[in-house]
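User: I'm preparing a small set of examples for a lab meeting where we compare how different chains pack in three dimensions. I only have the primary sequence for this one, and I'd like the structure in token form so I can line it up with the others. Please keep the answer compact; I'll paste it straight into my notes.
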Amino acid sequence: MEFGITFKGDLGVERTLNLIKQAEAAGFDYVWFFDSHVLWHDCYAYIGAASQITDKVRFGPFVTNPAVRDWSVTASMHATLGALTGGRVDMGVGRGDSSQRMLGRKPVTYKEMGEFVEVVRKLVKGEEAPVEGYDTTLTWTNYEMPIWIAAYGPLALKTAGKHADGLIIQLGDPFLSKWFIGQFKDAAKEAGRDVSKLRVVSAAPVYVTDDMALAREQTRWFPAMVGNHVADLVDKKYTGDDVPADFLAYVEGRKGYDYRHHADKDADHLDFITDEIIDRFGLLGPVEAQIAKIKELQEVGVTQFNIYLMCGDEERMVDEYGKHVIPAFK
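Assistant: Understood. Below is the structure token output for the 330-residue chain.
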């Protein structure tokens, strides 16, 4: 089991870089960043800076999308970071949620997301690929970059199975993760891919404490964020066997979502979230409970657990995991 942390890009430069150094020393394998440039600091500047003060951890956006930059720019940027880090860069990809909605745009189609992955993969390897119909080659790079796709619904999971090296699941629920992973791997098999090489990251907030009421308050924002994607599935009428019913049901009381407070633990759009859902989607409670749930995730096929490091007490969470949780899996 690998371990990662994810930043929004709102903690300030000095504190973020210090947390990254702390995480590497604590045994974490990955450092990810949200890529939503209107809401938060640019993630790629942080990756470049952090690469110069670390030796082992890998970096990447969690997630970028096909619409926010020219595809050749995205490829060149990741190839350059691959060189700068000594080959320690991955790319997470989605359709564009907050990144696009904060510009008044809609997320891209699944087809476009899949095309984007293949074009960027080729360009980063130094191979020719079409960018807006023009055959393009980055002649100076030959980097083999792992690419992950974030997915919940059937079409997204099928796209991930066909194109991605890894699947990103934004929740810490073993039951639902098992369903997502099954769909992902079935799609990969249909595409003739070697399923044994695929990886899966479960991303969720954590709060190590014996005070469950406090833990829920610090992480209530997370199911609301996930609810955006669930609401999209509901709007598309995915029901029954296509998507687990209990995954869809919890957004029934959702009254809207303010993207200006995306992933904000103090947002005003959290009232529809129940304690049961908070407990299911995050990792809350004492160290023993955290270890037990990560083992459940591991049993259903998760290969990396990634902490959404945005619930307060960030330094303490990294310390708790480094001292007590990560050693249980290494």
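A couple of notes for your slides: Residues 2-211+284-328 form a domain with the TIM Barrel fold (CATH 3.20.20.30). The mean pLDDT is 90.

User: Perfect, thanks.
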